[in-house]
Design goal:
- The chain is an alpha/beta fold and 263 residues long.
- The chain is built from ten helices and five strands; from the N terminus they run H-E-E-H-E-E-H-H-E-H-H-H-H-H-H.
- 47% of the residues lie in helices and 10% in strands.
- Strands 1, 2, 3, 4 and 5 form a five-stranded mixed β-sheet that branches.
- Helix 6 packs antiparallel against helix 7, helix 6 runs antiparallel to helix 10 and helix 8 runs antiparallel to helix 9.
- The chain is globular and about 50 Å long.
- The mean pLDDT is 94.
Length: 263
Amino acid sequence: MTAIKKIGRYCSTDNEGYIVNDSDIGKVGPEFHKVIRKVKDAYLHYLGEDIHSIYIRGSIPRGLGLMGVSDLDTIAVTNKKSNDLDLHWVEQTEQEINDEFDCVNGVELSFYYINDILDTSFFSIIPFMLKTHSICVFGKDVTIDLPNFKADKRLANEHLVNLRSQIQQAQIDLTGNEDPEDIKDCCIWIMKIVIRAGLALVMINRVYTRDLYPAYKLFSVNFPEQEPLMRKALHYAIAPTTNADSLLEFINNFGIWLVKEAG
């Protein structure tokens, strides 16, 4: 069984309790520079002037990237709505980059309209991620126009409000599924959701993290009787199984318990 590594940390906050973005281009390991440049070039090649700015988020810009393990999650802020963009090239481009570079586990391209990003009349996870966990690698950094964020009830609710429908979607995707790679992708996706939902249940003292290990630890302190199941979710997230039946059994047990706790 893959060993769980004690990697990750809680978000730093300033004196007023706002989350401090500890991402920095200088923290990006040199082994990731070429793939980042490849992704940036792909965005610009296909979308050109429709690109407002490009960001990388997650563990890599925080200096926590692991060779061959970490994903390269990227966000393109666009000058047009996604529905008005020609995105036929995205899936093939992601696959080509994944085939070319083994320094990352996978590359994700995503697209968000500038006006939607700047509309902060309600809480949205993408502006939050840009402000607190991302660095700009092309264009004008939109985060200077975004408000600061705290680890508060709005953020916790973001991880809980769709939990029931996400669990149901995983059940649908896994039932009768015999595609090993598809099962693994679903496993990683739903287990990250499960772990972060567990954190959201116990976001006391305004503590927050996107990292899986500290999220698991904080949950387990508050729900020690559920620690073995959350540890299993963590194992599934870092070493996904291809056994759809085992995943369904786990989701139908622990996943449904989380849904009930979330109310």
